[in-house]
């Protein structure tokens, strides 16, 4: 059914003149879209809230949506980048950001 849903979304977007881009979804709800830190915990009945050690509490779905939006232009994380490599890239980016700020 996933293929059917994807086809329908693409069809509707095409009819409305909306461009679609497939991106790698790995770790989009596990890293903060603001600072890049890995979320420290998930809360809420459906784990819909997450806590960033730097930025505080935020909605996990909103964080994932922002990360997905940014992935469209990410040259290092392609649609077919293995998920473990995605994790390493994100961790390295955060570590580099921290060393620059120190």
Characterization of the model:
- By secondary structure, the protein is mainly α.
- 45% of the residues lie in helices and 11% in strands.
- It contains three helices and three strands.
- The chain has a three-stranded antiparallel β-sheet with strand order 1-2-3.
- The longest helix is centred in the C-terminal third of the chain and has 19 residues, at 83-101.
- It starts with a helix and ends with a helix.
- The model has no long low-confidence stretch (mean pLDDT 93).
Summarize the structure.
The protein is mainly α and 102 residues long.
Gap between N and C termini:
48 Å
Question: Helix amount, in percent?
Answer: 40-55%
Counting DSSP E segments of at least 2 residues, the number of strands comes to 3
Q: How would you sum up the major sheet?
A: 3 strands, antiparallel
Which terms would index this structure?
102 residues, mainly alpha, three-stranded antiparallel β-sheet, 3 strands, 45% helix, globular
Secondary-structure blueprint:
Elements: H1 2-16, E1 41-43, E2 49-52, E3 56-59, H2 60-71, H3 83-101
Antiparallel strand pairs: 1-2, 2-3
